[in-house]
């Protein structure tokens, strides 16, 4: 069997617009995030939870949309992020 010659003909494509998009914040989310000392609050990839909602868990303040995309990284109240190599100013 000549598997290698067949495999060379297979092409994969990745859409140009695929991947994470910076989050859009509501005024309520902006006020909510200000109270936490995370560097994430100034990052364009931070997606805050909507304050006073029952879901997600109470210790969650938001998600990072760049780390582990498409499965967003959770940002907790109790694990303070002081620095991040993916940080980009909003």
From TrEMBL:
Residues 1-22 are annotated as: Disordered. It comes from Geoglobus ahangari. This is Uncharacterized protein. Residues 1-11 have a biased composition (Basic and acidic residues).
């Amino acid at each position: 069997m000549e598997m290698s010659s067949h495999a060379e003909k297979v092409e994969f494509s990745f859409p140009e617009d695929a991947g994470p998009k910076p989050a859009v914040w509501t005024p309520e989310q902006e006020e909510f995030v200000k109270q936490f000392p995370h560097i994430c609050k100034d990052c364009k990839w931070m997606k805050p939870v909507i304050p006073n909602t029952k879901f997600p868990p109470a210790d969650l303040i938001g998600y990072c949309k760049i780390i582990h995309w498409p499965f967003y990284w959770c940002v907790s109240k109790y694990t303070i992020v002081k620095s991040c190599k993916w940080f980009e100013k909003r």
